[in-house]
Amino acid sequence: MNQQQQSILLKSSSRFPLPPGVKFSYGTSGFRAEASLLESTVFRVGILAALRSIQTGSVIGLMITASHNEVSDNGIKVADPSGGMLTQRWEPFADAFANAPNHHSLVQLLDDFVKKENITLEGAPAAEVLLGRDTRPSGMSLVEAAKQGILSIIGASATDMGVVTTPQLHWMVRVKNKGIEASECLLGYIPQGNSNNYMNDKLIVDGADGVGGQKLEKLKSRLSYLTIDVRNYGDGVLNEGVGADYVQKEKVVPRGFGPADAGIRCASLDGDADRLVYFSVVPNSNKIDLVDGDKILSLFALFIKEQLGILYGPEDGKLNKSYQASLGVVQTAYANGASTDYLKQLGVEVVLTPTGVKYMHEKAAEFDIGIYFEANGHGTILFSNNFLSWLEIRNNELLSISKGSNQHNAVLRLLAVSKLINQAVGDTLSGLLLVEAILQHLGWSIHKWNELYQDLPSRQLKVKVVDRTAVVTENAETVVVRPVGIQESIDAETAKYPRGRCFIRPSGTEDVVRVYAEALTQEAADNLAHSVVMLVDKYLGFSSR
Ligand code: G16
């Protein structure tokens, strides 16, 4: 790194000192903390993004958001050239860099890193970083800090995309780097299904009082085939009693919904619109029937399996079946046991990874069609380039020999799904359009969809502890190896409940340890979760000191 670059970095970083007594860690999807603590972090991630852009010769994205967290928090997510999450290889450096105690150590770290990564700054191609933010009040000043970081690298440019959803920004990065076309809408491709069972065609969407609700409110007038009533798109407090995280964890109606909505198909998205869950309000109660990410995954798997069955089925024998596409689904330990049983019965390969889109995406990409979803509603479908090219060729062949045949329609539907779904990252809005299209195609109501299988009752709780990093897990977070002894205690509790299952893990987005329990009855799942919360408190809580 030359003298000029060093002195620019020293000068700019001295304006963004590290707040005293705070340790930042690159969590499940980037850095997250109380917003007032984050200026130095986003400034530093700005520098990092510019370096990544130089190294890859591609556009990088930075999204200022804390997604499902409360409105006073904020954070930063990084989109790599593919539109996916930042390469995990850079995470340790991001950690060290975010915690460098002063501007001198920061520049020293940078100098070592660019040498190690063979990043040549002099005469490098211009770096380009796209910036986006959600609706949090702290977003604007943090975008400014990120810009200062980016512009501290000579020749780098920052383009502010304004208020966007996280998946929009990831998509923009992907489009810029791959030169691909924007999404097309699927509904036009899919023949209307038998709508006899389709009891209620209105969809009500809870916008979490965030950016996704605002975008959908604008988009809905262009979706003439759907009647969408968007609620919570800006007047209330972001994520407070609303949004996918609240609905999925609390299993009660969100703010703005009530008895008059009973039975209607409803959906809820999160603060930055990368998660989606569905629900229907139970009559005369504040409870909901939750249709979570596992059921979205199951619906997608069922639909894709059906198309592959037609494609490779006996019909007319005109299709060249030389390419056998692999189909796999990816879940985490949070997946309801009943969903995993259902998917296995469907004949789909199921793989488990630790929590986090970064792990799931990587696994899903190993299949020709890889579907991943977390129970919390974060997920998407990935298609391999080889399979898509094969489908395009078959489409052209079938156009001339059996246009409109079942096999031809199956080819068209798979191609249409690949264009509608956001293959960069989970995306509430494209996921929602795909769910709606499949329900129409099948002629299913939300209730019929919900009957695919019955969830095992579950409970998720969080516990404040002295130091959540003291919890170390393995086997896709199903076993705790530290603190020593706690896993045996959890096992002993779990054994008391028929079909009991329980695990704990440190959150990567909040300063808590999460506890998940499921069992045959709700009372049993609640009791198991509460007794494990007490165990966590005994081993790691403030009283354990
Ligand atoms: C992020 C991640 C998800 C993860 C969630 C909660 O979502 O992208 O993969 O499930 O955090 O993570 P944790 O349990 O570690 O706090 P989001 O929507 O909050 O960005």
TrEMBL record:
Binds 1 Mg(2+) ion per subunit. Residues 201-277, 292-444 form the Phosphoacetylglucosamine mutase AMG1 domain. Pfam families: AMG1_II, AMG1_III, PGM_PMM_I, PGM_PMM_IV. It catalyses: N-acetyl-alpha-D-glucosamine 1-phosphate = N-acetyl-D-glucosamine 6-phosphate. Its EC number is 5.4.2.3. Residues 463-533 form the Alpha-D-phosphohexomutase C-terminal domain. InterPro entries: A-D-PHexomutase_a/b/a-I (IPR005844), A-D-PHexomutase_a/b/a-I/II/III (IPR016055), A-D-PHexomutase_C (IPR005843), A-D-PHexomutase_C_sf (IPR036900), AMG1_II (IPR049023), AMG1_III (IPR049022), PAGM (IPR016657). Residues 58-88, 124-176 form the Alpha-D-phosphohexomutase alpha/beta/alpha domain. Belongs to the phosphohexose mutase family. This is Phosphoacetylglucosamine mutase. It comes from Rehmannia glutinosa.
